[in-house]
Specification:
4-stranded mixed beta sheet; Rossmann fold; 8-stranded mixed beta sheet; 569 residues; 3 domains; Alpha-Beta Plaits; alpha+beta; globular; BirA Bifunctional Protein, domain 2
């Protein structure tokens, strides 16, 4: 019952099929070629037109299969791999039409009944298909186009409204920790809670957590804080904030301020004192400390808090501007802190190992390491920020072993102790903090934090009913694009690199994966300094084209001149 159509132009597929017959589940294009010695550029153009044509006749869940000779595709799957400029750059070409490479496997002509390889140099002659690959493309979810979003919350004394910043819009109200969620972060939290409840009397107190604070945090670099501006006539009282009555606040407006004093305090509004300003919660530790200071605890009971926290940070695969933190606090008799810490760590180890049992392709090691054995430069962003909040006794490290090799460990948690003489002279308090997102990434083999926040349904489908599995990427070998930007910084002006990275996050929709300083020099006459940074754009879950990246780069150049004290070169 199949219909065969001849002389079809692959760049105009919709012209050959009636509207009711344009919904194809699969489109195959085996060994495309412009004919004769056409060169790689013309063949890229052929593929580009073909992919754009396929969009018009493919179902939403459909696949496009393209078979290429060994080396033509230009992906790591080709062995040997051609130089990028000498390949057909198939993944980048497909991205221009909104496709991602979801699978690639050897092309086997013998598995296709009646198939015969012919057409070598436009002759009735077969060509070599040894090492040929079949590339399977699927539709990508579109790049987000963020529109201004206003959030409104209800307080005891009225409503507060604010604008959601672009860098956080797609992370708003995602509900990863809700009871109905099957997100890996939720699964990790549930397992930790269940295991710890076997070792301690346990009390969850997530319900009363506000997502913003007032004033400042001692010792924290203020360029790492997301400052917010609430409507002046509706600003909540200090009492409402401290009592957690504003718990409905999710996000607020980020002010990219240019004015900082020598202590890196940010002047959010002219004429306002920092103590009157608000910021998104960078840590749940203040809530844990408040439990102790109010005396709202039972000695020996483990109080558990969890929720999202917000920190401006540099761009790296494991540095997250938003993540889910889990904090444990337990008051114990003085002299028993060490045993309490050991019980905590043992329970954490047990729960993580039980989650990892089904993932046999690699081994996880969890260790407790003294904080004094690390230099500040050795810490990841999570550990470095935690160090600003107060003295740490131990870091909780996780490392991965694969095929006999061991990757460098990542700090996923910290443990600290404190004494509150005004509360009790006989008690000491143990605090532990875990980055749930990092733990979930390491357990499931997720190499990029952005994947945790993807809107593509193919991510959560891999974790049915909250079951943790080894993550399989559905976007293989995503293309990367490099752009440079050079500018002058005035003499005596301190360049805020965190703000620079935050602007890159915003204008690119988190598609900048690396920012690297490649050149700098100072002009002797004026004293001004020249900096040149290299930005690498790459998307882990969506199609990203060179045209889209070029537009992002132009916008980035414009934004840094408006928000930072720099002059483009």
């Amino acid at each position: 019952g199949a219909e065969v159509v001849f002389s079809v132009d692959c760049t105009k597929l919709k012209d050959y099929f009636l509207p009711g017959k344009r919904e194809f589940d699969c489109i195959y294009f085996n060994f495309p070629h412009c004919g004769r010695k056409s060169g790689v550029v013309k063949n890229r153009e052929l593929l580009a037109h073909f992919f754009h044509s396929s969009v018009e006749v493919l179902t939403e869940e459909g696949e496009v299969h393209v078979a290429l000779c060994n080396g033509q595709g230009g992906t790591p799957a080709d062995q040997p791999r051609r130089e990028w400029h000498n390949s057909w750059q198939i993944v980048a070409v497909a991205a221009g039409a909104g496709f991602i490479l979801s699978n690639v496997h050897p092309f086997k002509a013998e598995t296709i009944p009646g198939y015969k390889c012919t057409g070598y140099r436009s002759q009735d002659k077969s060509f070599c298909v040894e090492g040929a690959l079949n590339h399977i493309f699927t539709r990508s979810t579109p790049l987000p186009c963020f529109k201004p979003m206003i959030c409104e919350i209800e307080l005891e004394k009225g409503k507060v409204s604010f604008e959601v910043p672009q860098v956080l819009v797609d992370k708003m109200n995602r509900g990863f920790l809700e009871l109905s969620s099957n997100h890996p972060v939720r699964t990790v939290k549930d397992k930790l809670t269940a295991e710890l409840s076997q070792a301690f009397p346990l009390q969850n107190i997530d319900h009363c957590l506000s997502l913003f604070h007032q004033g400042h945090i001692n010792g924290v670099c203020h360029s790492n804080i997301f400052w917010i501006i609430l409507s002046p006539e509706e600003t909540p009282s200090t009492e409402e904030v401290s009592n957690g009555l504003a718990n409905a606040v999710l996000f607020s407006h980020v002010d990219f301020c240019r004015d900082t004093d020598k202590n890196r305090w940010v002047n959010v509004q002219e004429g306002c004192h920092i103590s009157n300003q608000y910021y998104l919660t960078p840590s749940l530790l203040p809530y844990a400390q408040a439990i102790i200071e109010r005396g709202a605890f039972v000695p020996g009971t483990l109080h558990v808090l969890s929720g999202p926290v917000f920190r401006k940070c540099l761009i790296t695969p494991y540095s997250m501007p938003v993540f889910h933190e889990m904090v444990f606090v337990c008051a114990v008799s003085r002299g028993t802190e060490s045993s309490c810490m050991q019980m905590l760590v043992n329970s954490i180890k047990t729960s993580i190992h039980s989650l990892h049992q089904t993932l046999s392709s690699f081994k996880l090691n969890i260790s407790l390491q003294e904080a004094t054995s690390f230099e500040a430069t050795e810490l990841n962003d999570f550990a470095a920020f935690e160090s600003q909040l107060g003295k740490i006794q131990y870091f909780i490290y996780m490392e991965i072993e694969t095929s006999g090799s061991c990757e460098k460990g990542s700090c996923v948690g910290v443990i600290r102790t404190a004494r509150y003489e005004l509360v009790s002279s006989e008690l000491a308090v143990v605090f532990a903090s875990l980055n749930l997102d990092l733990v979930a990434m390491l357990i499931c083999g997720i190499s990029d934090w952005r994947m945790l926040w993807t809107s593509d349904a193919r991510f959560l489908r891999q974790f049915p009913r909250g079951e943790l599995r080894l993550f399989k990427n559905f976007s293989l070998y995503p293309p990367s694009y490099v752009h440079d930007v050079s500018f002058w910084v005035p003499d005596g002006e301190q360049f805020d690199e965190v703000a620079f990275h935050t602007i890159a996050r915003q204008v690119s929709g988190e598609t900048v994966v690396c920012i690297r300083l490649i050149d700098s020099f100072q002009q002797s006459e004026s004293g001004r300094k020249s900096l040149c940074y290299r930005l690498t754009f790459q998307c882990c879950d969506k199609a990203l084209s060179c045209r889209e990246v070029a537009e992002m780069q132009l916008l980035f150049r414009k934004e840094i001149t408006q928000r930072l004290p720099v002059t483009l070169r």
